[in-house]
Amino acid sequence: MMDIYISCALFEGFGLSLVESQVNGLTLYIPSNTSKNAIISDKVTLINLENEEGIINKILNNNINNRNKTRLNNTCDINYFIKKIDNIYKKNRY
């Protein structure tokens, strides 16, 4: 489960992983020299690999779609697991 995809490739031909990430709705940060043919969504931000501070600021200041955060909060909680295990034991009582 991911919310963003960051590519630091100095060179990438077509970039199938970039297309797959976009199809899955991720926000992408990719080098500015990436082939424009691999850009198919408006969630792509081109980055200059020589400007580390600029990359960090772009990522931190972007309103990233946390589509997985709710799912994680609901399922990666100790109370959630306790209830699930408790229900399993209750169902299997003889």
Could you describe the 3D structure shown?
- This protein is an alpha/beta fold.
- The chain has a three-stranded parallel beta sheet with strand order 1-2-3, with helices on both faces.
- Helix 1 links the parallel strand 1 and strand 2.
- The protein is elongated and about 65 Å long.
- The model has no long low-confidence stretch (mean pLDDT 80).
Radius of gyration: 19 Å
The profile of the biggest β sheet is: 3 strands, parallel
How large is the count of helical segments? 4
Which blocks of ≥5 consecutive residues have pLDDT under 50? Answer: none
Question: What general form does the structure show?
Answer: elongated
Structural class estimated from helices and strands: alpha/beta
> What order do the helices and strands follow?
EHEEHHH
Provide a short characterization of the protein structure.
The protein is an alpha/beta fold. It has helices at residues 16-23, 52-61, 69-75, 78-91; strands at residues 4-6, 27-31, 44-47. It is built from four helices and three strands.
Keywords, separated by commas or semicolons:
94 residues, alpha/beta, three-stranded parallel sheet
